[in-house]
User: Fold this.
Amino acid sequence: MPADSDELRTPDSSAAPDGTDASTADRPDDPDLVLLRRHVAGDPAAFAELFRANADRLWSVAFRLLHDAEDAADAVQEAMLSAHRRAATFRGESTVRTWLHRITVNAALDRLRRQAARPSTVPMPTTPDGAEREPADPRDAHAEGELRLDVSDALARLPSPLRAAVVLVDIEGLPVAQVAELLDVPVGTVKSRAARGRARLAGELGYLRPGNQPTTPTVFQEGGR
Assistant:
């Protein structure tokens, strides 16, 4: 698959049986790598420790992509099951944490693709505890509800690769180089996808008033007028 393809790639399964190669030699004390090696060697408790060490970060990424607490939890579960099965294929070309993040991003995007394939209404965004966010002033409930639906709907209509770039770069605030590593594509591809995603969102959300814009440059700033 070309490096600049819009499909996300996952690690190759042709790694050595112990899940490592020479590129892991410079990270011998990485606690995540130690746990993964213990798991591959047969330690029944090691993977649970690895999960606990990374669960919050993985859930945060999934939640930002899916905007739903339950879907995010399901995506993380799918990702960790995949990582558990494929632990021996880890090649050490990135940190274990980055590898887990990449698998989680893939799981979240797979859920987005499945959702896009079936007609449905756009769900209200939820808070991390799964409850719908409520406007501070009940008098603004209708207007704010419509705005949240518009924003969620606009994000949902972005192709998955564009949405991933926008969420990870502009909402999560991750460095472009880190996003490129997570998505396994060149830095230029991340920049291109983010720019295309911003442009599409700006076109759909161009009616937003300046007062609705964040104070720092993000995906929605181009949408004000």
Observations:
- The chain has eight helices and no strands.
